[in-house]
Here is the input.
Amino acid sequence: MNNKSVLIGAVAIALAYVGLRSAQSNEAPHPVEVRPSTVKPFEIPQELDFAGEGLPLTVVDVREKLDREILVNSYWQSNNILMLKRSTKYFPIIEPILAKNGIPNDFKYLALIESGLQNVVSPAGAAGYWQIMKSTGRENGLEINSEVDERYHIEKSTQVACDYLNEAHNRFGNWTLAAASYNMGMAGTARRLNEQGVTSYYDLLLNTETARYVYRIAAVKQIHAHLSEYGYVYHQDQGYFFPEMDTIIVDTEITNWINWAQTQGITYQTLRTYNPWIQSQHLSNSSNKAYPIWVPSK
Here is the structure.
């Protein structure tokens, strides 16, 4: 056997050994793991409504605007999964309040896009799940001060949103413009309609945020109603949930919420987590107002 044959044989043995080691190694990537993600456009639905009012999808511009929001929101996967998980927790509270006030169920998606169902504060100062301004909250009976801010109260803030939306619907005659006015105000919406001589949201030239607003709500509704079509695998039992809760009525001064929480067998963090409207370590309550406090059941 010549040197060349010996070399070839040695190389073959070495390659076989490397192949065997790779096959046995858990570090070797599975073919699926190295395949690039599938990125594709989606078919625009032939029909889609918001609050029972159909989007005019025969209009090319309307289809393009909806397509943008479907693409932007469907490919923001982490945010969508978090919204789905939070909706399992908060929609069961929001939906009955909407129904009681005659507000279409689709408006739960307005809260979803406004805040992601988190108690956040906007640069303009709007706060809570429904992003309510201080002036609007106070005008609608919410207590807002250094000790209490009921914009962070899921039930009370939802009621204020319902009151606003019903007033807007009475003024504009449809839910689409009521939703748009939630973003830019009733006065601003009315002014734009009068200036431009139109009666439909879809005919208005608006600022970028409001121009995208209803389309974004409709897109999120569409994605969440047809998750598998947009590449999502999600089950309701994967969402977030409230633990079993007891309600304790407090109608006196609380000199120290930390101490009060400890007497209930919970931490101050737990108290604030389930009652985020509490804004201070004490409660003056000179009027002896009754505050319902949510405490996890023991």
